[in-house]
């Protein structure tokens, strides 16, 4: 995973900006799902998609960061400062914890985590002055993240000769 971006507070706190942020999130998720669609089950554990990681590993990785995005959102809503994180150590720990799980189990977890994150957004105050900064902070772990890994999956599929 690339170094997370550091975003300042968004300048545009309009309802349109909130809608645009939610649309970017939706489109990025759909791009991620399109990238992983139709991969043969026997190829899901093949290393080399993202470094040594497989598509299965990315399922668990995306699930973890969607849930972490909820924590980022809570931090914004609470007006609390953000703690520095060691995202590489977090990635390693989460990959190790998910290593023995099946692709099917991790895919379900990824979908559940995404649904939890969307439910969190839906339950959050819908005033743009709160929603827009929250979505901007969450974007590091969601829309930006999905796009990064979707590109890696597409490149791997091309190298591996997997149509998609």
TrEMBL record:
Domain of life: Bacteria
Pfam families: MDMPI_N (PF11716)
UniProt protein name: Mycothiol-dependent maleylpyruvate isomerase metal-binding domain-containing protein
Renumbered residue ranges of the record's region Disordered: 1-20
Domain Mycothiol-dependent maleylpyruvate isomerase metal-binding as annotated: residue spans: 25-138
InterPro entries, alphabetized: DinB/YfiT-like (IPR034660), MDMPI_metal-binding (IPR024344)
Record organism: uncultured Thermomicrobiales bacterium
One MF annotation (Gene Ontology) recorded for this entry: metal ion binding
